[in-house]
Amino acid sequence: MLTILHTADWHLGQSFHGYSRESEHAAFLDWLLRQLHELKPHALLLAGDVFDTIHPSAKAQKLFYAFLAQARMLHPDLQLVITAGNHDAGSRLEAPAGLLDAFSIHIIGTPLNADGTELDFERLLVPLRGDSGQTEAIVIAMPFLRPADVPAMPDSEDPLLAGIRAAYEQAVAAAAAMKNAAAPQAALIAIGHCHLAGGLETQDSERRLVVGHAEAIGLDTFPSELAYVALGHLHRAQQFQQGRIRYSGSPIPLSFTEAGYQHQIMRLDFVAGQLQSHQSIPVPRTLPLLTVPERGAAPLEDILPQLRELQQLPDVPLEQQPFLRVNVLATGPDPTRRQQIEQALQGCSVRLVQIQPQSVAEQQSEDAATDSAPATADLSTLTPASVLTREYQRVYATEPPAELLHVLNQVLLQEELPA
After folding, report:
1. How many domains does the chain have?
2. How far, CA to CA in Å, does 100 sit from each of 295, 309, 321?
3. What are the beta bridge partners of residue 290?
4. How far apart are alpha carbons 22 and 74 in whole angstroms?
5. CA angle 19, 24, 29 (to 5 degrees)
6. What CATH number is attached to the domain comprising 310?
7. How do residues 60-106 score in pLDDT, each as one tens digit?
8. Residue 304's domain spans which residues?
9. Interior angle at CA 109, CA 108 and CA 112, nearest 5
10. Considering only CA atoms, which of 205, 168, 216 is closest in space to residue 9?
11. Rounded CA gap, 155 and 394, in Å?
12. pTM of the entire predicted model
């Protein structure tokens, strides 16, 4: 048997409205170390966006490399496979690869060979050992793919999407050849950092890869030979094709929209080349993200008493104080609004990070959208592709064809182009 933990989108070094998330990330990494110690998985897969920026701070890098060192000390047989996301500088992330490879820590930041002419399968294909001590899986460790990284498909209607599909097809073919030659019972696993068509996104925290959702790839990008596809980029945990393709989601909320998400990592067990079982392991929330009022917006005179009630929160150091967003229903400019809010919060152990005014017209528009949207929908994550996917699944009990989603993306792209 082979046991793998799948995680993604750590975004180490994120600045949240000017505040560091270092204490939250440190708490998550400490918790993850305990999971590694207790569960003793054979491998940990990190599917991109290790850091929040291509120029991570020294503190963020120290946190990352300290985790790698401690993970190996606690679990000397652990195999780590880490790929770059769209927030990462691929070349910088994999710079210490020559050293880390000696400790079974495989970091792949760029997919091409030294000449930049073709996919480097010698680096992209990572064998994983299981209980038998033999290769029980071959991981296609594909980092985030930019247009220059994929095979040229000039005759295709959408060269980027066709190039991404071709890259995975070539990688799966190379992995299958390795499997047939040396490990017939190995599972084929792929890592991807991408926007999957139909995936629910978080509009205020996920960086759009290409304008107009044209970057959204279809499920057919991942050939059926793959036993599992470990995805990163979308912060909401979600699955496709009965869990064969899955986003693990981010480990902490990276925006207020994500405050209600169930953050998790995934445990996966493979036997004889197939995914036998999977388990979602919830990540403990160490710091609340508070919104007043909890839903919608309210007049300032109704909000101020609610803010004063926050004095009941325990007095804790600044880095442990909850973040607070205040949604005010505004009838016009009010130069005293912030001052009144700050006065109401005096003595409260919270960090006020956002005051969001909302007009009556905006609230009425949101209410109308809520009435017309599906009852279970989260308006912050609705996209044309997600609505189509949900309705198609409701009517036909299956995933929509990739061709249908592709046509939708093309229509949306045409609408955003200038006349």
Report:
1. 2
2. 47, 51, 36
3. 324
4. 22
5. 140
6. 3.30.160
7. 999 999 999 999 999 999 999 999 999 999 999 999 998 999 999 99
8. 289-363
9. 85
10. 205
11. 36
12. 0.84
